[in-house]
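User: I'm new to structure prediction. If I give you an amino acid sequence, what do you actually give back? Let's try with this one:
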Amino acid sequence: MNRLPHPPIPQRPPPKSSGAQIRSQIENVIPSPEGARNLAKRLDPRGIRSLRSLDASVAALPQHDVTWKRLTKWGTNQGRFLLLIGLSLLLAWMLPDARAATFLSSSPPAFLEGPLQISAWMPTSWDGESARASFQAHTDVLATISPYWYGVAADGSLSPFAGARDTTLRAYARDRGVRFIPTVSNQGNGDRIHAILINPTLAARHRQAIVEDVLRYQYDGIDLDYENLWAEDRDRYTAWVRELAQALHGHEKDLTVTVQAKTFDADGWNGPGALDYGALAAVADELRVMTYGWCWRTGCVGSDPPGPIAPIHWMQRVIAYAKTRVPGEKIVLGVHLYGYDWTLDQGQRGPFLGAAWEDATGQALVWIQAEALRAQHHAALQWWETDEQGRRVQEPWFTYDGMRHTVTFANADSVIIRARLAQTEGLRGIIFWRLGGEDPALWDRLPPRTFSVHWPLWMARK
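Assistant: Good question. You get back a string of structure tokens that encode the predicted 3D arrangement of the chain. For your 462 residues, that looks like this:
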């Protein structure tokens, strides 16, 4: 089971572009999966979103060979737009090999320099063999491993997933100095957590079940990943977490709390609004912020897919908000190692007959799968530096099968950029979602683990 997709992330929508801004964007085209598609949506008065050929066409045109302003001087405004579209489509048809990779506008650091706590979530109930192999190969880098091990039962007890409570894995981590903190997830079931929180007996039973497993299996602590909580449970959840933290710290165990990302408080919203960053971080040892999920299987924030998984401009806004509530040394930045292969099932409709990307669905994949697809279809790797508003994205992508598929994913470059962002912002560290099938080049660019990072709360109080 997987935590994907996440629900839409609260953010304030950007203002709509004016006609002058649209023309400016045409004259300064940046190849990206969204640029040409969104341009077609704006230009077509019927709202048709289907000119996916235009995505390839605009990306295909070498910008140094085309003087956009010269083109747009011809004819009326409508004529300019039609001429641009027609010429782009013609050139794309004539020059299919022009879809070369877009090189990095700003090169990522070759290596991550300086200390940074690096952690990872690890599945065992799916893709377990690959995830375990990755963990065992990189214990010199990882400071913490969080096996994705538990669900929440209706009676407040823990519901272990396949592979949970593996004492061999625990011993392997301990022998190599890796902190071992399994994750308990409500799997997005806010109703179940609400039922537990409003019932004192169930709330106490759930808390005790967690503490008992931590002690019985000698974990270093526990990680809570409770998503889609009810807005009215904000204070109840905070109070329950506070009591759990006290119980764990009393046994010299750690508590980390994983939270959905947001760029403002979102008070009154279900999901992110139910998570009081400041109050939760005050009692927990870490606040893990899931800064991914800008696009999910069937949609993106404010647009149709395809789109980025975690654009840098959004991650920066999430960090900025979080730091108004939480000291940076307690924030752990979630970094994605996955991606999506979005498919437009045209059926009886072709790109000129109204097929819309709003009908697209995505299949989750990891780097090894993305690279296999790219090799199979001889697809050129592209780099999404900025979006059509000039905001930093910095993710790899490619298309294949006649533009019917668009893939955005994570590679070593995109991960190192996000790790450097965490360093620059003075955060405690990063945590990967998730191990298994990631870009192997990543690990050679990360620093070895350091042991002088942060003291847990229970030690600080002594």
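You can read the tokens as a compact description of the fold. Here is one thing that stands out. The chain is about 35% helix and 20% strand.
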